[in-house]
Amino acid sequence: MGFFRKLLGKDRQRQPQISAPSAAAGDPAAIRYDPKLIETLHTHHAHLGALFDRIGDSARHGDSRKLHDLLATFKLSLNAHVLTENVRFYAYLEQALSDDAENTQIVVDFRHEMNSITRQVRAFADRWSDADMSNSDAQNRFLADYYQVGKLLERRLDSEEEQLFPLYQQT
Predict the structure, then answer these.
(1) How far apart are CA 14 and CA 128, in angstroms?
(2) 10, CA 20 to 30 Å: which among 3, 144, 157, 160?
């Protein structure tokens, strides 16, 4: 379940996983399948969602110090998550789907889009890293930005979980 979907109480059904074509057997440069990777990525999404929720709470309560700490933690956690996805998830899918041009292009497009969204989220965290939340005008501006970023992440991570996670299969 997507972390924002869970946060907002929306349910979705898991789709069955789709087998991907196999990569060259015995290739030492091949990215190896990790049977726990999808579980790990779901855990990352849940952790990011919980952090994001706490960021909003901190802003609504005017707790600038906590907000700044949570934004820094969120940014670091997001960077670690994206690195894991790029090195272990997207690279594996591109390798496993190398004989399927259409699905490979979908994976490449998702990867580029996620990297673009990551840059936007980093900019959001940087923009608000020193904000004074004791001012109601700053809180309102922050929360408007926060909700916009939240919707962007929700759509993106839900689509990733629904469309790409099912493609991750041992080859």
Answers:
(1) 35
(2) 144
pLDDT tens string 122-145: 999 999 999 998 889 999 999 999
Nearest of 61, 81, 85 to residue 73 by alpha carbon:
81
Structure tokens at 45: 């999404």
Identify which of 119, 120, 144 has the alpha carbon closest to the alpha carbon of residue 131: 144
For residue 13, count CB atoms less than 10 angstroms from its CB and return exposed for 0-12, middle for 13-18, buried for 19 or more. exposed
- For residue 68, the one-letter residue type is H
- Kindly tell me if the per-residue pLDDT of 159 is higher than 70: yes
For residue 124, give the nearest of 140, 110, 105, 144 by alpha carbon: 144
